[in-house]
## 1
Amino acid sequence: MQYINLADNIYFLGYNDRRTNLFENIWPIPHGISYNSYLIVDEKITLIDTVERSFIDEYLESIEEIIGNRPIDYLVINHMEPDHSGALKAIVNKYPEITLVGNKKTFAFVESFYMEPENVHMVHDNDVLELGKHRLQFQTIPMVHWPETMVTFEETNNILFSGDAFGSYGTLDGGIFDDEINLDFYEIEVMRYFTNIVGKYCPHTQRAIKKLAPLNIKMIAATHGPIWRTDLDWVLTRYNKWSSYDLDKGVVIVYGSMYGNTQKMAEVIARRLAEKGIKNIRVYDASKTHSSYIINDIFKYKGFIVGSPAYNNALFPNVQTLLSTIEHMAPKNHYLGIFGNFAWNGGGVKNLKLFAENIKWEQVYEPIEEKGSLKKERKEELLKLADAMAEKLHADFE
Ligand code: FEO
């Protein structure tokens, strides 16, 4: 991608990745992702974060196109994950006098991933680095998304270089600023990036939001996705809602099913919920939909009902994968229902009960387990489960 001005002598160097199928080799990115780096040209030339390694050649060329033969003085490392530090070694090799700017946790990562850094400048919260006309102020925001993560606030134009925070999946297809693009496209991509990558660290995100609140931010330049310069509230409001587990009225139902019996149980629950006035109901087959999308809806809706058949005396494997992801992310404030099916000695519901114990969400009804095809007695139980869930939700969202 060509370089673009954010402000006088501040350049966006962003690269679109439409080749990678799985971000972190886990999460599907059918619409790709961008890696955004920033360059400030002043008395001291400064890079803020780099890019993923597959873009090194064009990245170095773009930098040279802007600064010619001048050396880069500083590389500010907001975040060391290799999707942003992938070009670090190439930058240091090309500009050996460069000083790496980071906090006390940053340089240990530099050493473990790349090399023992030679020239370093350690910063602490509120420290300022003078570049000439531009001043950079630093604030650590640990665990959003790694322990060393910090943000850099450019005080002349009030630009927050925010690292992963406020980032998004999805490439930048021409437009890079929020006012140049239809944000409908990014609605799910911003949320999936948040829930998939940062969602485990909601309390840390809340602390970061509060810590950054006093800054007079006029532009947010993240390391992925659009740059926010017109409607900052669009992304700030959403981040605040998601990271505070502020859930909407609705139910996510997930099931695993080999021959359709557990699916039938899910359909009974879904229909009854609709009859009881619940309008947001999302039913997923755990074998069909990647947990990236399901976890996203779990961060949206307060109700969660999960069903599993027994599979060799255990949970159905794809349900197990999803539940492991949920336990790992540990979102809060949900209501839970569990059900399942077995052919001989069970294993589905037995393990769903263990999930319920671990996740500690309020169970709205007792676990329900059918043997083989769905029969009248169990169907009645499923209706009661749906009724109990609907009642809880109506009470909460009066
Ligand atoms: Fe985009 Fe945590 O790296």
## 2
Amino acid sequence: MGEFDLIDTFFTHRWPARDDVALGVGDDAAVLNVPSDSQLVIATDTMVSGVHFDEQTPARAVGHKIAAVNLSDLAAMGAEPTWLSLALTLPEVDEEWLTSFSHGLREICEYYDCQLIGGDTTKGPLTLTLTAHGLVPRGQVLRRDGAKPGDWVYVSGTLGDAGLALACQQHQQSISDSHYRRVLERLYFPSPRIALGQNLRDVASSAIDLSDGLYSDLGHILKSSQVGARIDVDELPLSLALTESVDADTAINFALTSGDDYELCFTVPESKRGVFDTVMARHPAKPTCIGRITNQPEKLRLEREGEPWQGLDKQHGYDHFG
Ligand code: ADP
Ligand code: MG
């Protein structure tokens, strides 16, 4: 199968189509109709085989995740996802792998009404690069640099589950089969918090998605906003799978330092909390308040019952060149 048959077979037929795509896959470039009252928000993420996933990762999960990690970036900006383009580097044409991979990617496109508008296909070590485009009403984007002293710090979902799954895969932890299935689902099929991000446009002063671990990612908000934070480690939202599998301090360390959660961390000013609670009343899973922004630039203070918590492991978050 050649390059063009491959694109035709796996990335063209029965994929969702949007009205705002004037020209999609098949020409030299895609042409999109961008509404004049919106701003275009663009994110790119790469997954390299052997670095971000390994051979045991199902191809459907790889397809899901390359989209999910990019949509998570759009969620953190408050954007509505619209268009994706995919750069695919493959060592060979493995039709079985491509079928499952394209299913995983197509499912998430269907769910979020995104259209695959183009890409590139090359031969080489298995690598996926996806660029996600989204729209946000002009001036309403969520950024990292808006947190102010006194704002409340929230996170969505539960933290540390994907990290626990990875630790189990690497034989650093061993847990029950049922807990393993749960956390593996979180590692393989993360849910980008798209609806939450859009609902935060009017209420959050800053936001970031959690890809490298809360400790590291909240640090980016603190640096961009030139503020500090106090976090109560007992308030961190932890799943039963995590708390029943490891001791309390290990669970907190997973929640703070392990990556791949793809939850949102954001700050809400006191004056917006009423609106926030009203908006969140409609959400199935209300985000958890874990602390407060302080006026000490870049100082992240971890507390338990008001006292400093000293249980943090050395390595915080993943840095490719660190
Ligand atoms: P060119 O040679 O002009 O760069 P290509 O041959 O790379 O064009 O691609 C032909 C068409 O197929 C383009 O519209 C491109 O966007 C699309 N395309 C290529 N690879 C992919 C892919 N992996 N997924 C989706 N569309 C793709
Ligand atoms: Mg061309």
## 3
Amino acid sequence: MAIKKKSEKISASTDAITSSLKETRVFAPPREFAKNAHIKSPAQYQKLWEQSVKKPEVFWGKQAKENLEWIKPFKKVLQWKAPFAKWFTGGKLNASANCIDRHVTAGLGNKAALIWEGEPGDSRTLTYQDLLRETSKCANALKALGVTPGDRVAIYMPLIPETVIAMLACARVGAMHCVVFGGFSSEALADRINDCGASVVITADGGYRKGAVVALKQNVDVAIERCPSVSHVLVVRRTGTLVTMQPARDHWWGEFLGRMSSHCPPYEADSEHPLFLLYTSGSTGKPKGILHTTGGYLLGAALSAKIVFDLKPSDTFWCTADAGWVTGHSYLAYGPLANGATIVMYEGAPNHPDWGRLWSIVEKHRVSILYTAPTAIRACLRAGDSWPAKHDLSSLRLLGSVGEPINPEAWMWYHEVIGGGRCPIVDTWWQTETGSIMISPLPGAIPQVPGSATKPFFGVFPDIVDKNGKPVPAGSGGFLVIRKPWPSMLRTIWGDDERYKQQYWSQVPGVYFTGDGARRDKKGNIWIMGRIDDVLNVSGHRLSTMEVESALVSHKLVAEAAVVGRPDELKGEGIVAFVTLQVGFSASDALRDELKKHVAVQIGALARPDDIRFADALPKTRSGKIMRRLLRDVAAGRNSNQDTSTLEDLSVVAALRADSED
Ligand code: PRX
């Protein structure tokens, strides 16, 4: 099936981006797959895509009617006062009713909605009927705790069914959920709770990770000491860990929900009613609360889940993402559930108790679609073929990748070893801000090229431009922008419309600026080249260098810190910190370890630096700006060809190169 072409090398550059391409293998969609797919051919894709961007309101209006259930029909498809969009105005709907009730009404009450496996090996299956009952009880519990439409509820949980139930329950009562990744520290949790002013926190006594218990409730207790907005905490008993319950404030989920009615009429939300906030890293300042609203977001998640993953009623869909990331919102919960699919959820680490875990879950639950991140694929590749070989993976029919560029070697391994050479791979590019998949091959229609996200999804109008906003020629690198609004786009940054305008709509006036570099080849395939700002992509998760730097500087011995990424075989990017100490203190291995730990405590283990280099000074321009591009070269161990003419003191760089841990 693979058409292997002669290798060619294209090099191109703009002001900021250079690319070199070697990959030219093309994998046409398998004939059988295409025959049964929602979108069956390149011509069908092309026709629909052209219609969708020529007449977006006609396209989206039709899709919104066909894919969502409206309590009250919308009057207008789009109101666009750049850069603020309103989709499906006049319409009313409820996201949880769209994900649950309508399937129960359609007779699917006994269909498995959610198959869950805990890290220790325990498992539960919830039907759509079960999901309706539990979500309604949780929704009534939220009401009993004083939550009203528009309020914020923070969710800080392990990956257990109650996490999805809690999200859907918020949607049911019109409250906004704000899921905070359970791997984040109490500091990071408190910052997010304070930014959004959550009144209730939903958590668990603990969660299992690599055989140990993560003390979630304990972290919540520390966090909310400085969160005056929080009046109640709902605690799921997961691990049986001893926790302190503060009377009147803290309630056990089981007992509290046990007293609630299992009937809760869904809130009739305006299409533009806020659905959730999700924090993500930007290059400057504090994390941004990305705001998504009901109708547009849900349509984006539902339609892309159906078309990109070619979802059918018979599919068992496993998205391995944590609910703390946008992928866990759109493709663990909302997208597949809106389509009435069966989802699989796994609580723990992929290598617990060994590297066969993922494949044993695929085998046990007959997973047909697997959606994971390149970092996980590379880790499994490194662990060896013997692990997947022990399991029957024949239930798989489609594979997906998200979070960072997938290198062709990992793509080929995924294709051959996991997909048995028969499963198409969808390399899906999107962001927290875009809400749903924007660029991806459609598995029955678009030939896949390892390493390329290929073509835009329906209604998505991407372009690649130079710093003046001028489209660059095929083969040249540039900035990826989106020219037209789309339903699941972010509406703003919570409480900061100005920052929203600045960050996304001002770099190239009038178009959405993704912050990614990209290149389009002669066949029109798009290749994502990574972030162009100071944002790290560690294991497929965005981290701001700024946040890691402020965590370091908050240590009493640190005077100044600069953080950059360096290529990392497994994680995509590793974190390297350059640190100067307060006068009178000297560097040591013990301090290096202490600082790494300090960052992990301040932000979470994900942000722990891989390498810390001490220096007497950081390389700065005469105007005092740290020269990050230079530091990136130093971190990667590359000789630098950066222009150092503006550098204040050249000897600083030599000193930094010398102080390497490796
Ligand atoms: O740089 C791109 C990278 O991840 C960024 C978005 O991160 P986040 O908002 O955390 O969402 C991650 C999951 C959607 C993008 O700006 N990225 C995401 N998917 C891909 C990717 N880079 C290359 N290829 C992808 N398929």
## 4
Amino acid sequence: MFITLEGPEGSGKTSHIPHLVEYLREKGYVVFPTREPGGTSISEQIRDILHDLKNAEMHARTETLLYQAARSQIVEQVIKPRLAKGEIVISDRYYDSTIAYQGYGHQQNLEEVRALVKYATAGLTPDLTILLDLDVEVGLKRKKQNESEWNRMDDHEVNFYRRVRAGYLEMVKQEPKRWIVVNSEQKWDDVQEELKRVIVGKLKVEG
Ligand code: TMP
């Protein structure tokens, strides 16, 4: 089972994942958490280039390609082998982030971006993708409260993030079977409970 969490800035994905992992492990599942960009030595090095505020001149196509380079490495080195062993892999972002940020956000050609993503992942699609959705301004405010996490990808104008959110919601409409939307403006505990319910529900259906 391959589960991905997606969402705009400040949606809280990263804070929820360790608790979900612990909960599923207590239930006896073998679970492996990953994050993108990163999760392997090569991918973490690419993450540093992508996030470095010094690289302000980076072109959107360069950015798109670097995300795919980081991604193909983690897919081959970590995700596929773990799935092949029957483990649950939970990823903090995956290719839908590229479609949302580089496709909708930077307004790159969506068909071309989708083709690149398919190449980078060798077609590996998540079984379940959860969108932690929230108002753009609320999310940016939350993110700004944690200045230490501020990076080059956070330095866009607010309309960029509006396009990202609208892009995610469009993707949910296009593939309603794969996506579940969770309102992350709820209290943290309520979001966590809903995430557990959604994931356990999916695990039961898949047996
Ligand atoms: P995060 O650690 O807050 O999730 O930050 C990762 C940043 O990278 C976030 O701004 C979204 C961005 N990103 C993309 O633009 N495209 C991608 O494919 C991925 C994985 C992340």
